UniProtKB/TrEMBL annotation:
Belongs to the PPR family. PCMP-H subfamily. GO terms for molecular function: RNA binding; zinc ion binding. InterPro entries: DYW_dom, E_motif, PPR_At4g14850-like_plant, PPR_rpt, TPR-like_helical_dom_sf. GO terms for biological process: RNA modification. PPR repeats lie at residues 123-157, 193-223, 224-258, 294-324, 325-359. This is DYW domain-containing protein. Residues 540-632 form the DYW domain. It comes from Lactuca sativa. Pfam families: DYW_deaminase, E_motif, PPR, PPR_1, PPR_2. Keywords: Repeat. It comes from the Eukaryota.
Length: 632
DNA sequence: GTAGGGTTAG
């Protein structure tokens, strides 16, 4: 139909060629795309179009502008470019800028630059399009270089260029350049522009300078939805998701209504925090505003509920979503993984394949992770082969790490080591750490030493490697070696990250550190804990001092264990969370083995469900049994 | 011609 119409038009107007032809063709295509079926309207529009072309002089640059805008292929742009050359129109700045813009839009930066380079004169738009093009393409060197030329050229700097350049600084985490651009913005009086400020806030935040980001945010003359959203996301990214929630409320109080993007940002903050009470409130808010979430928002909500400990709510959101993509499915598979439901992850993968959703690298990573955390060694090995043989996805170091973890947890240390030796991709810290952790569980001191040496070679400054090796020596009672590492660590000024646990009660979080006495009900908490441990011992709980990692006497070891942050948090949870409700606990590190046993016995003796989110996964503990199957 | 969104090993 479309072809026919074009042919007819061409017969009526044989003079139509090049850009005019493109323009007419695109317009007709547009009419077709609009589902316009009325034949008469078609005829009418077609005739208006041809009359216009006949009446307008062919040298009018406006024609070429509209023809350019209608281009659908790079080849069309090039053909118009050639026509402009022939007609001597390459001195029209507006037209060249449009051409430049189209080259950038169709990712042909070489064409764009060769045009830009030859331009006899340029205006700020020319610079901005070229620099923005380099920025979007991730061509940092050319972006900065062209920006430098722009500044040097003495041409007026308008507001459009800066955000692109700042975004590049953000992506490269180039704080030095970022500060320089900030300085330039001041110099040209553009530092109060909202677009510039938002880009700067985002840049500082992503470079880890959250204080500078916040200062800038606080003094901004006007804050729109995007500004707030950037700041809310920045807080969550810098580890202060609680502040994100505070800002979100302030934003709403200021009269702004969150859109989908800001909802996604706050949903993420909630996921980071693991705050179930907030998750429900935000879900309600989303439901009042939208009939159903879009793919991105829905996916974020699945992740939020999963990370807040409710795999059932996550699945419900998943089931109710009108549209899902590979990321949605992968998110749900990951969720089953860190909730220790490997079998469900595998089942979901089968359904996903039946639905003809093509899995990607991350889907497989989530599957392998799920297998490793549920002890499904055979399935994991099979998935690993399937990924390569059926889907032709090459494993990267993360997939190998999962495999090493899978084999290592199952005690198949030699197989894991063979895999590491034979793999063709570069080995990193994570890979060796996974292997080292397995060596530690199975007391393979010599293998552990190999791993630790590789680790310290890759990164001599990472304290956790030193701590891990010291833990292995401690477990093997090699106290001399422990002492040596401790001395090394002191010399390097490396310290162990302190363990912290939060418990959710009275719609808020209470934080505990090891041996904490800062809570106002501290005395009662210790009393509760003491009574609890007495009760537990009667039920067969024996403190496991293997997990105390200093060379101290048994008595002192017991004392340290006794006041671990998770024990204090759970004691307080028992006091303050109403009976019948689960106790929700979040720990910044992984739960130690003794605390894990403690939690299981508490769940049995007190008849309480305890949901623990540690640095890597969830433990659902009920009636003395943990969902991780003691396998974490 | 300029700013903000989802999954991922240890």
């Amino acid at each position: 139909m479309f072809k026919l119409k074009l042919q007819r038009l061409f017969t009526v107007n044989p003079s139509i060629e090049g850009p005019k032809f493109c323009s007419v063709a695109s317009s007709l295509q547009f009419l077709d795309d609009g589902g316009q079926t009325n034949h008469q309207i078609h005829e009418h529009n077609t005739s208006i179009l041809s009359t216009q072309i006949q009446q307008t002089p062919s040298m009018d640059p406006r024609f070429y502008v509209s023809a350019l805008m209608n281009c659908k292929h790079l080849q069309q742009i090039k053909s118009i470019h050639a026509q402009l050359s022939v007609n001597g129109l390459l001195s029209d700045l507006l037209l060249i800028n449009k051409l430049l813009y189209m080259y950038v839009r169709y990712n042909s930066l070489d064409d764009a630059y060769s045009l830009f380079d030859k331009m006899p004169e340029r205006n700020p738009a020319s610079w901005s399009v070229m620099i923005g093009g380099f920025a979007k393409a991730g061509n940092y060197t050319n972006c900065f270089e062209t920006f430098r030329e722009y500044i040097k050229s003495g041409e007026h700097l308008d507001v459009y260029t800066l955000p692109s350049v700042i975004r590049v600084c953000r992506d490269r985490k180039d704080l030095k350049m970022g500060r320089l651009v900030h300085h330039i913005a001041h110099k040209f009086g553009l530092h109060k522009n909202t677009f510039v400020c938002v880009a700067l806030v985002d840049m500082y935040a992503k470079c880890g300078i959250i204080d500078d980001a916040r200062k800038l945010f606080d003094i901004m003359p006007e804050r729109d939805l995007t500004t707030w959203t950037v700041m809310i996301g920045a807080c969550a990214a810098s580890g202060n998701a609680n502040e994100s929630l505070v800002l979100f409320d302030q934003m709403r109080e200021s009269g702004l209504v969150p859109d989908k993007v800001s909802m996604v940002t706050i949903v993420n903050a909630c996921a980071k925090l693991g705050a179930m009470h907030k998750a429900k409130l935000i879900h309600d808010l989303i439901q009042t505003q939208y009939r159903s979430p879009d793919v991105i928002l829905g996916t974020a909500m699945i992740d939020m509920y999963a990370k807040c400990g409710s795999i059932d709510s996550a699945r419900q959101v998943f089931d109710e979503m009108p549209q899902r993509n590979v990321i949605t499915w992968s998110t749900m598979i990951s969720a089953y993984g860190y909730h220790g439901q490997g079998q469900k992850a595998l089942e979901l993968f089968l359904i996903m394949c039946k639905n003809r959703i093509a899995p990607n690298k991350i889907t497989f990573l989530s599957l392998l992770y799920a297998c490793s955390h549920s002890g499904l060694v055979k399935d994991g090995l099979q998935i690993f082969s399937q990924m390569q043989d059926e889907y032709f996805i090459k494993p990267d170091v993360k997939h190998y790490t999962c495999m090493v973890d899978l084999l290592g947890r199952a005690g198949r240390i030699n197989e894991a080591f063979t895999m590491i030796k034979n793999m063709k991709v570069e080995k990193d810290e994570g890979l060796w750490s996974a292997f080292l952790a397995a060596c530690r569980v199975y007391n393979q001191v010599e293998m552990a030493q190999k791993a630790a040496e590789s680790l310290l070679e890759i990164n001599p400054h990472n304290p956790s490697h030193c701590i891990m090796l010291s833990n292995i020596y401690a477990k093997a009672a090699k106290w001399d070696d422990v002492a040596k590492i401790r001395v090394q660590m002191n010399g390097k000024n490396v310290k162990k990250t302190p363990g912290l646990t939060w418990v959710e009660a009275h719609n808020t979080f209470y934080k505990f550190s090891s041996g904490d006495r800062t809570h106002c009900e501290s005395n009662a908490i210790y009393e509760k804990l003491e009574g609890l441990i007495g009760k537990l011992k009667v039920n067969g709980y024996v403190p496991d001092t293997d997990f105390v990692l200093h060379d101290v006497s048994e008595e002192v070891k017991l004392g340290n264990l006794y006041a671990h942050s998770e024990k204090l948090a759970i004691a307080y949870g028992l006091m303050s969370v109403p009976e019948g409700n689960p106790i929700r606990v979040t720990k910044n590190l992984r739960v130690c083995g003794d605390c894990h046993t403690f939690i299981k016995v508490v769940s049995l003796v007190e008849g309480r469900e305890i949901i623990v989110r540690d640095a890597k996964r969830f433990h659902h503990v009920r009636e003395g049994v943990c969902s991780c199957g003691d396998y974490w």
